[in-house]
Amino acid sequence: MFKRIFHNFSNSFNFHYSQEGWRYFYGSFYYISSIKRTWEASRDDCLQKGAELVIINSQEEQEFIRQYKKSAWIGLTDRVTEGVWKWVDGTPLTTSFWRSGEPNNYYGRNEDCVEITNNGGWNDLVCENEINWICEKKMAPLPWER
């Protein structure tokens, strides 16, 4: 009985967010932008939505994001200390999906922000570039997802 009630609640909750362009995956809702902005402007947009630039914590989450085949900002940066990659929530990078040869500060440019490319690999970019972005709003996983 509880599972059925909770399932009905979660379906209506999911419907609400999906109507606003969000997609659900294992305890989080994701918003994939249709316009392009700088990394900072993208982060501001996520914060205004009560979310944050996406933090990719697993191979499964990487594959979920990768299916959209869109180059987009993620919540990873080394702006504070060059070469020390941290997520926007302050946690250090532990699992990564860099493209071969990345990160590289291409041609000596100060590439402090990270995009997931349309083929799914990560690439460091100049934060002032304008590309799409992905927000993540963390929720608790549904009981049957645990």
UniProtKB/TrEMBL annotation:
Q: Does the keyword Disulfide bond apply?
A: yes
Kindly list the GO molecular function terms attached to this UniProt entry: carbohydrate binding
Stretches assigned to the C-type lectin domain: 25-136
Q: Which Pfam families match?
A: Lectin_C
Q: Which UniProt keywords apply?
A: Disulfide bond, Lectin
Q: Which PANTHER family match?
A: MANNOSE, PHOSPHOLIPASE, LECTIN RECEPTOR RELATED (PTHR22803)
The name of this protein is C-type lectin domain-containing protein
What organism does the record attribute this protein to? Dicentrarchus labrax
